[in-house]
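#struct-queue
[09:14] JT: dropping the first one here, sequence first, then the structure tokens:
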Amino acid sequence: MSTAVKDRIVTTDWSQLTLGQRIQHLEVEGYVVLPDLLTPEHVSRLREELSRIRTHGAGYTDKKQVHNDIQWAGGAITELIAHPPTIDFLSELFGNTPIMMTYDYSRSEAGCPAINLHCDGQPWGTRIFGPQQSCPKLVRVLYYLQDLTPEAAPFRVVPRSHLSFHNDANPYLRYKEHPEQVMVTCRAGSAAMINQNVFHGNYANRSDHAREL
């Protein structure tokens, strides 16, 4: 990966965007960051409860630990599904009450490799994601429980890639990198929201601590 691609960091001041600007950014660019959706106390409670959750390695590396279908865990983990500021935004976005389709926990340990660029929308379903990912309109909400820095497995996305009709934008494809990818950072307690068909992933975790999502 070239330095120019790796170091292209988004500098948007997300806190200054209006509701309309946030919705427009998500619709057009394919992603938006909502800063400080969770208080430090809320983040601490989630991290404490998650420390007791059993996880397993992802198929491509044990440096990424996951727990799928975590909605049944109870406590703050389950309550996060109906977090009022998030539900308010999604209700404005959709013009209707949102429905939860999937809920997973992911922890990128120090040394975790980059995740290839991919889409979460799978219009015909897959063995990996199942029918839950075949919704016509789907938004992924990514809550970050540590500061997302350039070293700590930051989010990467190819803006507007969800708008392309080209075969290279087939949502079942995967890419190691893309010349238009950007790096997104934010504070702990913030959330990145993405269109299901935007190509996204994350950079490697080059920090000395885990990054929870």
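[09:21] JT: and here's the second one, same format:
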Amino acid sequence: MNYRAGFIGLIGLPNSGKSTLMNALVGEKVSIVTSKPQTTRRRVMGLVSGADFQAVVVDAPGVVKAKSGLNLFLHEEARDVISESDVLIAVLNIDEKSAEQLDEIIKIVSEAKKPWIAVIQKTDLPVLHRPQILRDKLSKFAVPVLQGSALKEGPALAEAVLETVKSLLPKADGPLYDQDLYTLSSVRELSAEIVREKCFEHLHQEIPFGSAVRILRFNEEDGPVVKLHLEVLVNKDNHRAIVVGREGSTLKKIGTDARKEIEKLMGRKVYLDLKVVAKRDWQKNPGLMKELGYVIPKS
């Protein structure tokens, strides 16, 4: 049997549409998606299993350059995904204002010396000349180039991408993980990410980027209702007031939207308790960064 299995890394700029493509490939929501850049912070892994292959699709944070704090983690996390993947997909969004930034993604992926393809994303947008410009740039690499909109035509684009990349995966004796799974993230991790997604949706300016979510308690054993106690961390005291909102209105919206989605995820009723805590410069606190999972273990 010619079975293939391996890791596929999605590499692109912040807000390039990687997470939307990831969810389309898996056929389930495993990566949170917002209109704001840098929504994805940690790698998220989804599983796609077929009769003759299993792809572990890894949604990496958008490629950024930084020397410290959370942005340094994002930079290192993306680089780590590149080094550990068997196949790479360069996700190139046509709404990127800087052609040089897209050139950098192509350069990074091509220099990794691994099998790769390019996916030109967001072609539903009215920038008709840009896909051809990118195709001309990619022609010298002799790699497959696909294009489409994961938002508008997700299933069709996902099918084309999977059909193209599965032959690039390493040969294997069988699947790497249980074929009934669609993600390697735990329900705890997914719940915290859903809350963070709702913070991005309901908050503006720099506040979402300076926030994080950590789990205080997660109890799904005592009774029919799952009890979640989570904490939203922000950088400044005045940011805390904004997240809470007048008479708690903003936090209530965040909590209500998050609870409904977590209930859908778990198939059970959920009691969600959210608190907001100001931790000045939490991105510079090694202990907190490690607790939140924003540290790459050194081998």
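[09:30] RK: nice, looked through the second one.
[09:31] RK: The radius of gyration is 20 Å.
[09:31] JT: good to know. The chain has a mean pLDDT of 86.
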